[in-house]
Design a protein that fits this description.
It contains nine helices and no strands. With 168 residues, the chain is mostly helical. The protein starts with 5 loop residues before the first helix and ends with a helix.
């Protein structure tokens, strides 16, 4: 199982910074035009995920190139770019089945009638909790805690996951 350490977190932060709003805008324009063949595989994934979220974030994607200075207010606004990247991280974990508990949790949610998109969001809720704790406290990602939480929550109903995370 791959462990996420401080260097990985710094790398994630660097990747987030390197994907500028202009790049998101470029990916969006190509995705809208159905012309993603020239993109690398990770950018094609981003394009697909952006198209899946077009109803929610159309304006942010359309004007991404001029939103570079906008600070999204936690609790009041969703950062659509972070949301898309988190989707990509979870989808990559599912593809690689690493950690396997992400895949098992996802399958459990699907068996409980969550569609693919909702199941990805449920996995993200758990992942984000551990990611932000790690970033906030400047400590290594708690892979053991993350895996144990996935195991503990996989038997819950999808609609109970958010409440269970809030209680933790």
């Amino acid at each position: 199982m791959t462990m996420i350490d401080q260097n990985d977190l710094l790398s994630i932060q660097g990747i987030l910074r390197s994907i500028t709003c202009e790049r998101f805008h470029d990916i969006w324009e190509l995705a809208k035009a159905g012309n993603t063949a020239e993109l690398n595989s990770e950018d094609r994934k981003l394009a697909r995920i952006m198209l899946q979220h077009r109803e929610e974030y159309h304006n942010q994607f359309e004007f991404a190139d001029v939103m570079a200075e906008h600070d999204f207010i936690p609790g009041q606004e969703t950062n659509p770019f972070l949301h898309i990247i988190l989707h990509q991280i979870i989808e990559n974990q599912l593809e690689q089945r690493d950690p396997i508990q992400v895949y098992q949790f996802y399958l459990s949610m699907r068996k409980k009638n969550s569609d693919h998109h909702e199941a990805i969001h449920l996995v993200s809720i758990i992942f984000v909790h551990f990611l932000f704790d790690s970033l906030k406290d400047q400590k290594p990602f708690d892979n053991t805690g993350h895996v144990n939480t996935l195991i503990k929550l996989k038997d819950k109903k999808p609609e109970k996951i958010m409440a269970a995370m809030e209680m933790d």
